[in-house]
Write a structure and sequence with these properties.
The chain is built from 23 helices and two strands. It has about 600 residues and is mainly alpha-helical. The protein has two domains: about 350 residues, no CATH class; about 230 residues, Methane Monooxygenase Hydroxylase, Chain G, domain 1 (Up-down Bundle), CATH 1.20.58. Strand 1 and strand 2 form a beta hairpin.
């Protein structure tokens, strides 16, 4: 045997080049797609059929069913997608992943692609240094495409030659003489191969090369493809381990759906493969059978394997489409909903949603920040309940505010860490860097708002213990301030959800001015009550503390809207003509 350990290292390195090219190609395509990819993702929520199209389209763009399914699991975990809605996307991803096999079998084996791939890199390499972002992204995708096929050519050269290494062939061939048991064995081999490479595309490429080089025959290669369909579900299931019950269900559905498909295909695999051979013979009568051991039939066999891969996944969706409700019920029984913390859609598990594309990751982070803003609004409701609900419910609101303040602290840390991970991507654009910095600013202000509500709740608790409640008249006047702050929170939430150019800064500025005006009015009334002795000095201090903290909340809300718009403002102070109180104005720099 002439195959050495150094030759094996070359095979591993060739596989690394292939996977690296696939990643660059995928990243470039996702950046080129940009907003279109986000529009595709929005199609997830319509119905199961459009979900299939969404999964197919997303996987075609990302060139990775793993990316699509992990993204789906993370979206379900974050509450941005329901478990039922995710099923269609997962089915479509299975079909989309077959595009890679066609690309490899057509370009990799039917003609010499390497000279074209190298020329492609030569043509597009200079465009990596141009200022036009779209051109740079296209160049990145094309260079990745070229590296991918160079890696494939290296894999073909690094695979042991049959004639020079008969011992290896004899070893593999010894496992192919057990009939159906051999098929089952190589289903397992395909599963393990996908687990080792963490990429069904890479595993498929290896299978195609092995078939082309004659190491395995067509039925064995088909069995490995079936195993790779099972192996590709493992990454999403691993990602869902720390997710909530809905994320776990989406991952389990992917596993059961693919396993069910493999089971029915195994029952009819022999006649099905002969049917594939008949189709190939029909379109190319002069070609040899794909079951032939003749080297001339091998390139045709790789096309037949791609046809098998696509046919299997399309038929699996068609056959199991009607049984999806039963699969959903099976998954729900196996993955039971224990309630409690599983129902919370906080940013506790966002690390599972880190995408290969910074564009997708930033979009997901934005949606998680939107959930953060909703938590802040809940704290506003909680403090409102604390002030105006009956005394027996006040302890409940105090506990809620304390718990939510802990959550806001955790949210800030988790989102910040996630954004740092995104920013570490070497290929991230300057535009994305600015977005990430603005998001860091937003989460800091949101966390400060949560702190202020919690501090006011502790002040309220102390006033209860000291027996110094604020009189009803003063509390009723405070309702106007609470209403003004809530209106500002609504505007802030809308601005977080909007695209940068759609942020309504005028509404945000007007809301903050109203908060300042109400604060000034209530402060004057507060001093008047103190002079009349309506309440004690201590109760007055507490009341004034509420006013000042609510005004600070208004400032942080304004900061969030500014960051959402990607703008910075310079604070200037002038004095009102009617009073000596400073009035803030904001002018854009």
């Amino acid at each position: 045997m002439s195959y050495t350990f150094f030759d094996f290292l070359q095979l591993v390195g060739s596989l690394g080049i292939f996977i690296f090219g696939m990643k660059i190609f995928s990243d470039g395509l996702q950046k080129v797609a940009g907003n279109k990819l986000r529009a595709i993702l929005k199609g997830m929520t319509r119905n199961r059929f459009t979900g299939i199209l969404t999964g197919f389209g997303t996987t075609t763009i990302t060139q990775s069913s793993t990316t699509t399914t992990v993204m789906v699991v993370s979206f379900v975990n974050a509450g941005l997608l329901t478990f039922v809605e995710s099923t269609g996307v997962i089915m479509g991803a299975n079909i989309g992943t077959t595009i890679t096999a066609w690309m490899v079998s057509i370009f990799g084996f039917k003609f010499q692609i390497t000279p074209i791939a190298i020329s492609l890199i030569g043509v597009f390499f200079p465009f990596l240094f141009v200022s036009n972002l779209k051109l740079r992204n296209i160049a990145e995708a094309m260079i990745g495409f070229g590296i991918l096929f160079i890696g494939l050519e290296f894999i073909k050269d690094a695979v042991p030659d049959i004639n020079e290494n008969p011992e290896i062939f004899a070893f593999l061939d010894s496992f192919t003489d057990y009939g159906f048991l051999s098929i089952l064995l190589f289903v397992g081999v395909g599963t393990v191969l996908t687990l080792l490479t963490q990429s069904s595309s890479a595993a498929t490429a290896i299978t195609l090369v092995m078939l082309f080089q004659g190491w395995i025959n067509f039925p064995i290669a088909a069995a490995m493809i079936l195993g790779e369909n099972i192996g590709t579900t493992v990454t999403a299931n691993i990602a869902a381990i720390i997710g909530n019950v809905h994320a776990k269900r989406a991952a389990r559905f992917h596993f059961f759906f693919n396993v069910a498909g493999v089971l029915w295909m195994l029952l009819i695999i022999t006649p099905f493969l002969h049917g594939i051979d008949s189709v190939m013979q029909f379109f190319s009568p002069e070609s040899l059978s794909v079951f032939s051991d003749d080297p001339a039939a091998r390139a045709n066999a790789t096309l037949a394997l791609s046809l098998f891969h696509t046919s299997f996944n399309v038929l699996n969706v068609i056959i199991l489409f009607a049984f999806v409700p039963f699969l959903i019920r099976l998954v729900e029984r196996i993955q039971t909903d224990k309630g409690g913390s599983d129902e919370r859609f906080e940013l506790k598990y966002i690390n599972i949603g880190l995408m290969s594309s910074s564009e997708l990751s930033i979009e997901q982070a934005k949606k998680e920040i939107s959930l953060f803003a909703k938590m802040v609004e809940k704290m506003h409701y909680g403090f409102t309940g604390l002030l105006y609900k009956k005394s027996e419910k006040q302890r409940k609101f105090l506990k809620k505010l304390s718990k939510r303040e802990e959550i806001t602290d955790q949210l800030e840390v988790e989102i910040a860490e996630y954004l740092v991970q995104i920013s570490e991507n070497a290929n991230i654009s300057s535009h994305s860097i600015r977005k990430i910095r603005n998001m860091q600013s937003i989460i800091n202000d949101l966390e400060r708002i949560g702190d202020l509500y919690y501090q006011m709740s502790k002040t309220f608790e102390r006033s209860l213990e000291d027996g110094e409640p604020i009189p009803g008249e003063a509390l009723e006047e405070l309702r106007e301030m609470m209403g003004a702050v809530h209106d500002a929170i609504i505007i802030m939430k809308n601005n977080i959800d909007a695209h940068t150019h759609e942020v309504d800064l005028d509404a945000a500025i007007e809301a903050e001015r109203r908060i300042n005006d109400v604060r000034d009015t209530l402060r004057e009334e507060h001093y008047a009550r103190l002079e009349l002795g309506t309440y004690s000095v201590k109760a007055g201090i507490i009341y004034l503390d509420y006013l000042n903290r609510l005004e600070k909340i208004g400032d942080h809300i304004m900061n969030v809207s500014e960051a959402a718009a990607g703008k910075r403002f310079r604070i200037t102070k002038v004095h009102s003509q009617e009073t000596d109180a400073p009035v803030k104005h904001k002018t854009e720099e």
